[in-house]
Specification:
7 helices, 6-stranded parallel β-sheet, alpha/beta, binds 3-methylbut-3-enyl trihydrogen diphosphate, binds magnesium ion, Undecaprenyl pyrophosphate synthetase, 6 strands
C-alpha cells in the first residue's frame, strides 16, 4: 500500500515571501508580487517537465482581503494582466487552468478573467494548474457540510451515507487527487488555511527561498527532496 513513487502526481505550493523579497530591495510589496509571476511560469514549466499532472498554487487567501486596499487591488490587477498575457501560451503548453475559491467579492473584471482563462485552456491535458484564489480550507469544509445537511433535510441522502468520499465530493477540490507534496517557500512553517482536508497525508517541505527566487532549479531540488521521502500512511514498512 505504501506508494513510494518518485514523482508526485500533485504538487501544491504556498507561494510566500513576495513582500519580504520586495522589502529587501527597497521596493513596494506589489513589486514582489510582480516578480513572483516569473516563478509561477517557472513552476509550470518545471512541473510539466517533471511529469507532475496537477500543480496547485495558493495565490490569494480569504484572509488576504484584510491587507491594505492598494495591495489587494494590485494583486487583483496583476491576476487579470497575467491571465490575459498567459492564456494563449498556457493553452499551447497543454496546461488546463482551474480557479479554486469562492466566487464572491470579486469585481466583474476578475470574474470575466476567471471565465476566460478556464475556457481558453479547457482542452489542456498535460498539466492542470489550479490557482487557489479567494480560497479558505475551513470555508470550503463549512460549505461542504452545509450542502450535505441540506441534502439530508431534503431526504436525498441519510446521515449515514456521509463518509470521507462523499464529504470530499462536496469540497472545491472535487475531482482532483490529494496533494502528494506541499511546498511553502520563505521558511514559514505553517499551512495558513490551505488544503487542510486534502493534505492529510501530504509530504511537507519548507525551503527558505522567497517565492520570487524559486526558479526551475529550486523546483527540481524540491522534486529530489520528495523522492527521498518515505510515505507510510500509518502502516509499517518491511525494513522496520
Ligand atoms: C505571498 O507573499 C503572496 C500572497 C500572500 C498574495 P506575501 O505577500 O505574503 O509576502 P510576505 O510573506 O509578506 O513576505
Ligand atoms: C498564505 O500566505 C496565503 C498565500 C500564499 C496566498 P500569507 O502570507 O497570507 O500567510 P500568513 O499570514 O503568513 O499565515
Ligand atoms: Mg506571507
Amino acid at each position: 500500500m505504501s506508494h513510494n513513487r518518485a514523482i508526485p502526481q500533485h504538487v501544491a505550493i504556498i507561494m510566500d515571501g513576495n513582500g519580504r523579497w520586495a522589502k529587501q530591495r527597497n521596493k513596494e510589496r506589489y513589486e514582489g508580487h510582480i516578480a513572483g509571476v516569473e516563478s509561477v511560469r517557472a513552476a509550470v514549466r518545471a512541473a510539466a517537465r517533471n511529469g507532475v499532472k496537477w500543480l496547485t498554487l495558493y495565490a490569494f487567501s480569504t484572509e488576504n482581503w484584510g491587507r491594505p486596499t492598494a495591495e489587494v487591488e494590485a494583486i487583483m490587477e496583476l491576476f487579470c494582466r497575467t491571465v490575459m498575457g498567459e492564456a494563449e501560451d498556457l493553452a499551447r503548453q497543454g496546461v488546463r487552468v482551474k480557479i479554486m475559491g469562492e466566487r464572491t467579492r470579486f469585481s466583474a473584471t476578475v470574474l470575466d478573467m476567471i471565465e476566460h482563462i478556464e475556457r481558453s485552456t479547457a482542452e489542456g491535458d498535460r498539466l492542470t494548474l489550479v490557482l487557489a484564489f479567494n480560497y479558505s480550507a475551513r470555508r470550503e469544509m463549512v460549505l461542504a457540510a452545509r450542502s450535505l445537511a441540506e441534502r439530508v433535510s431534503k431526504g436525498e441522502i441519510s446521515a449515514d451515507d456521509i463518509d470521507e468520499e462523499l464529504f470530499a465530493k462536496g469540497l472545491m477540490s472535487s475531482g482532483m487527487p490529494d496533494p502528494d507534496f506541499v511546498i511553502r517557500t520563505s521558511g514559514e512553517c505553517r499551512l495558513s488555511n490551505f488544503l487542510l482536508w486534502q493534505s492529510s497525508y501530504a509530504e511537507l517541505y519548507f525551503p527558505e527561498v522567497l517565492w520570487p527566487d524559486f526558479g526551475e532549479e529550486a523546483f527540481d531540488k524540491a522534486m529530489a527532496e520528495y523522492a527521498r521521502r518515505e510515505r507510510r500512511y500509518g502502516l509499517v514498512t518491511e525494513d522496520c
